[in-house]
Amino acid sequence: MKSVDNVDKKKSLRILAIETSCDETAISIAGGSLEKPEITVLANVLISQIEIHKPYGGVFPALAKREHQRNLPILLAQALGEARTGMDEIDMIAVTYGPGLEPALWTGINFAEELAAKWKKPLVPVNHMEGHIVIALLKKNKIQKLDFPAIALLISGGHTELVLMRDWFQYEIVGETRDDAAGECFDKTARILGLPYPGGPEISKLAEKFRSTSNQSPVTSNQLPRPMLHSKDFDFSFSGLKTAVLYTVKKLPKLTQKIRREIAFETEEAITDVLVAKTLAAVKKFGARSVVLGGGVAANAHIQKIFSEKIPAQIPDAKIFLPEKNLTTDNALMIALAAYLRAYHKKLKAVKNITAKGNLRLGK
Ligand code: KG4
Ligand code: ZN
How many angstroms separate the alpha carbon of residue 155 from the centre of ligand 1? Predict the structure, then answer.
């Protein structure tokens, strides 16, 4: 890989970023300073495919690919229009190359490669999970300072992992789920309760309703398990939780809305308890000075609330970074920001060709 030739001599960098790893087609254009860590968002547009995939109860890869192919040119025109810029003013093209659904990733990569070839721009591959981490640092277009070591908890539909960062872009996964991801647990529980996909926001809404109408004694009288809460490692397991919900529901004579709310509440509490306990343990073990939350599940208001209460209470010196709600789910600004921060820290590599890596991992 060669380094990006003309970037070193410039004072700022205009990045066009493309994200197609799952069911959002997204393009962002951002300008970053190479003298101080500052980024200006010029455009951040996306088309969500949630409604298209809803009937399948999950993301259908062939359909995602077709939609990405259709949406990319539309979003490119929209992003360039909003940013009031032309391709000639773009300094580099960044694209997600994994992890994700490979047919979906390839559409973004092929589109990025064609653009880069046509406009003679450097092409930069970005790890989607790195995007989820760095986007938590962005507050009102300002990039907050990350102190190391840092612990990032990445929670999405496909991932639940605790990542240790000893420095910029140095990742070590210290714990991860052994079966279902946290988002998958939300989605599967929602399906058991007869709620639509994606289940996380639905469970969250019902749980909030339960809290606001609470003081009722639990109808299910069955507190859900907190899998691996006391295991000595930093791993997670969520498939047992979903199974416990399934058995609870099977035993019920009737699944009423009241019981739905209570189970949603219990599920959210159980997932949150495990996530916060494991994160706190990792923060203590590695002496982390920053805690970062990222991924679609980080949109969950209850999880954000508990993290912002418990981390400062138990580790007063640690900084906590929670992503803005509209930037927790997949978007291309997180990809632009990751590319920008790599350029700023002189860790950016441009390539000629990119290969999609569905199972790409952070670190080694
Ligand atoms: O990061 P993301 O957009 O896509 C993946 O890379 O997986 O995450 C999607 C996941 C889904 O499982 C969805 O149910 C979950 O994030 N999610 C939530 C909330 N919003 C989205 N889970 C819990 N509470 C939410 N408010
Ligand atoms: Zn994601």
Answer: 8
**149: helix, strand or coil:** coil
User: How remote is the C-alpha of 231 from its chain's centroid?
Assistant: 25
Asked whether 83 and 336 are in contact (CB, 8 A), the reply is no
Distance (Å, rounded) from C-alpha 224 to C-alpha 265? Answer: 10
Tell me which residue has tokens 């908890």: 153
Average pLDDT over all residues of the chain: 94
Label each residue of 14-63 as H, E or C. EEEEEECCCCEEEEEEEEEECCCCEEEEEEEEEEECHHHHHHHCCCCHHH
Answer for the pair 236, 175: CB distance below 8 angstroms, yes or no.
Answer: yes
Give the pLDDT score at 218: 62
pLDDT at 199 over 80: yes
* Contact present, 95 and 68 (Cβ < 8 Å): no
Q: Report the alpha-carbon distance of residue 358 to residue 64 in Å, rounded.
A: 14
Q: Which two tokens stand for residue 278?
A: 């494991």
Alpha helix stretches (DSSP H) within the chain: 50-53, 61-83, 102-119, 128-134, 182-192, 199-212, 239-251, 257-286, 301-314, 333-344
Q: What is the rounded CA–CA span in Å between residue 299 and residue 294?
A: 8
- Tell me the CA distances in angstroms from 262 to 190, 237, 297, 343, one per residue in order: 12, 22, 20, 48
User: Residues enclosing ligand 1, CB less than 6 A?
Assistant: 22, 156-158, 183, 186-187, 198-201, 204, 295-297, 299-300, 329-330
Rounded CA gap, 109 and 19, in Å? 9
pTM: 0.94
CA distances from 87 to 130, 225, 329 (A): 26, 53, 27
Nearest CA to ligand 1 atom 10: 157
Q: Whose CA is nearest to atom 13 of ligand 1?
A: 200
Residue 217: count other Cβ atoms within 10 Å of its Cβ: 6
